[in-house]
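I have been asked to look over a protein record a colleague put together. This is what I was given:
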Amino acid sequence: MSLSYNSWFFKIYCNFFAKKIGVDNYGNQYFQKKKPSQKNNFRQRRFVIYNGNVEASKIPQEWNAWLHHITDEIPDLKANKPFWIKEHIPNLTGTPFAYEYKDKKDSSKIKNIYSIWKPKKK
């Protein structure tokens, strides 16, 4: 996969002006700017470089909380994940694998109890 010029520039920018904080299970890299700015209420700006397709749903909840300054703890990859958390499934909207709702009602068993409203003619 070839990267656009903006992606290359952003990676170079990250090496000079940001500090690499960590990597998640999907290979996304997380960075934090070295200096806080007034634009971000004097907090350090946090951002992510996605591995592969850019899809916000690929960010695990622990890293999402860190990105949005909800917590300052850097998530641990070795932490035990609860059994009920499922692996990420990409958004399939617009692909041949997208979910299609199929109506399974049997039209012979449905009673037509509704009628179309027709205004009275004067």
